[in-house]
Design a protein that fits this description.
Blueprint (H helix, E strand, L loop, with lengths): L6 H10 L7 E3 L25 E6 L14 H7 L7 E3 L5 E3 L3 E8 L2 E6 L13 H9 L7 H4 L2 E6 L4 E6 L6 H4 L10 H7 L13 E7 L3 E6 L12 E6 L3 H9 L5 E3 L6 H4 L4 E16 L9 H9 L3 H9 L3 E3 L23 H10 L7 E8 L2 H16 L2 E8 L1 H11 L5 E7 L6 H8 L16 H12 L3 H18 L2 E14 L2 E2 L16 E2 L2
Parallel strand pairs: 1-16, 2-11, 2-12, 15-16, 15-17
Antiparallel strand pairs: 3-4, 5-6, 6-8, 7-8, 9-10, 10-11, 12-18, 13-17, 13-18, 14-18, 19-20
Amino acid sequence: MRRKISVLMLALTIIAGLTAGCSSQSQDHTEVSQASSESGVTVGNEVSGKELLSVALSSNIGGLDPKTTVDRYSANVYGCIYETLLVYDSAGNIIPNTIVESYEQTDDITYQFKLKQGIQFHNGEVLKAGDVKFSLERGINTSMNYLVGDIDHVVVLDDYEFNIVLKSSNGAFPAGLTTPQTGILNEKAVNEKGEAYQMHPVGTGPYKFRTWEQGVSVTLERDDNYHDTLPYFKEIVFYEIADDTTRANQLEVNKVNTAILASTDIVRFQDNDDYQVVSADTFGLIYFGMNYNSEKVADVKVRQAIAYAIDAEAITKAAYFGYADTATSILSPNLTYSDADKIPINEYNPEKAKELLTAAGYDDKKLQLTLVIDTRSDVTSVGTMIKALLNDVGIDCEVVTGDKTSMSGSYYAAGTNYDIFVGTWYCATPDVNSQIFTTFHSSNNGATGGYVWMHNDEIDALIERARKSADSAERQKLYSELQMFVFDNKWWVPISYYIDNWGVSSDIDINACLDAAGTHKWWKATVRN
């Protein structure tokens, strides 16, 4: 089929901005990492020597307490402070982390752990089983619920041994204990600081907290008493720089030595011997979603019409310039149980879209929808192109914008004041449970990721069966069924699978740090010989 909107024209709509072709409404939110002059932020003194790793992140850091903040930008920081009970090895097996002597599953719902003795928190307290019980149980019914919500209780056997007892079997549970969001905190430090704990995080990790200038940067310093291999860099500074151009500029003038790059900025560093571009596959994707609560998209014909109007291939090319792959499944192909190689790319057919809209009663009147787009650059670009494509088939959009954190707390949490949205998701582990349960199970509606507001008893039951099963063949069958349900019913239209591209000073090696979940292991950074 001949495309009515070329890749070039789609790219031009990005420049046109959010006001072209439809009305726009802006929330009174300013992303904290952009609260600076147009020329960009000043992120500190010029990087010198080989003792400092300075990392420019592409979004604001929401918090340093996993109980309240589970986003991957924040987890990049607190993943250096806290340590988890379990980790994945290079072969993809789940093994004890450095704070754990041993662990085993003793029955369908019980996991027995033994901590190593003598591990110290940054405040000098010794890591005990009580700290683990405190850390995991405080996360139940919070933003951590998708990882720890199946825990019934933790039994402390002695200072170093404990049992985690689940409410029911969950084959995905151990994977959740590998994420920074389930890192172990010091109970005494949390209780002493109370509401102020965000500014005084204490863990057993390779780096300890020094300062956080909110909206600007977090500084960590190496814990020279760390119980395992000491990191190379004495200090890490994480800068919050949401603007793509500013982030690239700071790398180019040596104000930072590591920065996540937008696709448009890669060419600036590719052929420069002073830099390297390090690319990594991810568990992430950007997608177009529809709100289950919205009466305007309740009719499957309307959702199908909207999906036919979206050209995922052209959007991917225009937004990412070849540095992303067009998505098919709701699950990245790098994830266990993904059917990305079996599900086709969303079909672009604007004439079919118009036919379905007419059949749904939108012949003499236009469908009016509220579209939520947060201010991250690629979300804005993709959202702008989708808005233009919808307009082309006769759908008008009122666009609501705001920074991601604010939108999560206002529009998405309410679940009643928008019809469609552009979202992103990075699965926290190779096991898809953390993504599927968070984004489609009704218990997470309105929480981080639960923006579709799905409330379908059959889908809830399917998700629960899949996460409880220890049989990989059964889980594959169930997750395949779910992927086809979303494809057929169009609650999500996958757009692009992310590839992370980092611009790095030529003398620094971050290859061992990069994690497909987007929560990178920065303590593994070193220098090139």
